[in-house]
Write a structure and sequence with these properties.
Nuclear Transport Factor 2, Chain: A; four-stranded antiparallel β-sheet; 35% strand; alpha+beta
Length: 127
């Protein structure tokens, strides 16, 4: 999984300074931090979903992509809204079971969780 890559501005008008790919079943989520021509950074979130049409030898594979651009002035409101939406789903439907490959990850120790200040938001998203 590639976590960092850099492109020259000559390849496009938006330079990628950080990239994280998150594989989740048939989908891959890409979190790309980009710089525009004014050297301002923003977050580009891309969902890529593998789509297979047809069967057997006639099958064709394509990828459906959706993008969201998130600018720094909106980070706080977006994070707050995302956190509220996740809390609502968790309250209404409970926490989802992790996939077997994700169970290897350790949960944070109690003292780590309690050390967060009231201002900090901790988001733990299971895909």
């Amino acid at each position: 999984m590639e976590e960092f890559k850099k492109k020259s501005v000559a390849e496009g008008d938006k330079e990628i300074v950080f990239s994280k790919a998150i594989k989740a079943g048939k989908r891959i989520y890409y979190l790309d931090v980009k710089k525009n021509r004014k050297d301002e950074m923003f977050l580009a979130i891309t969902e890529s979903k593998k789509v297979v049409s047809g069967e057997g030898e006639d099958s064709q594979v394509s990828f459906e992509k959706h993008k969201i651009f998130l600018y720094k002035e909106d980070f706080e409101k977006f994070t707050e809204g995302l956190h509220q939406a996740i809390q609502f789903i968790s309250k209404e439907q409970g926490l989802s079971e992790r996939r077997p490959e994700e169970k290897i990850k350790q949960e944070p120790a109690e003292e780590e969780t309690e050390s967060l200040s009231a201002d900090e938001i901790k988001i733990d998203i299971d895909f």
